[in-house]
Amino acid sequence: MIAGTPPTRRKLVVLSVEDDVLVAMGTGGTLEDLGHEVIEASSGAQALAILAERSDIGLVITDHGMPGMSGVALAQAIRARWPRLPIVLVTGYLESPPDFGLQLPCLQKPFRAAELAEAISQAMAKFGHGASGATAPLPPMC
Asked: Which of 53, 61, 62, 87 could form a disulfide with 71 if both were Cys (CB 3.0 to 4.6 A apart)?
């Protein structure tokens, strides 16, 4: 576990959706350091295919600015089929993307492990999968 990060209540199978290979490696490594199993997808379409095949995914972390399908569009598609699956949106844009009523925890790139851990806790708590328990400020909803 990374020093200074809030403890995670349980190990999750996390679907990390990121089109940039280097960013995907960094996010995946941080998630593993936090104790999670990581499955990677490089597009929204690939993420939806993985979700259709696997029932063990407990959280999706998606980049917003991807070609073909944005993170918000992916989140909308996930909500339509898996309405209780927690999602964290990650963006490198200065302004948070419109959420269209999704109310997702939103992380600005670059982010620290503690910020990622808190966003995960917030997303899980939103769907009754555990409370945060951390004292760090909550990430903004986007």
From this structure: 62
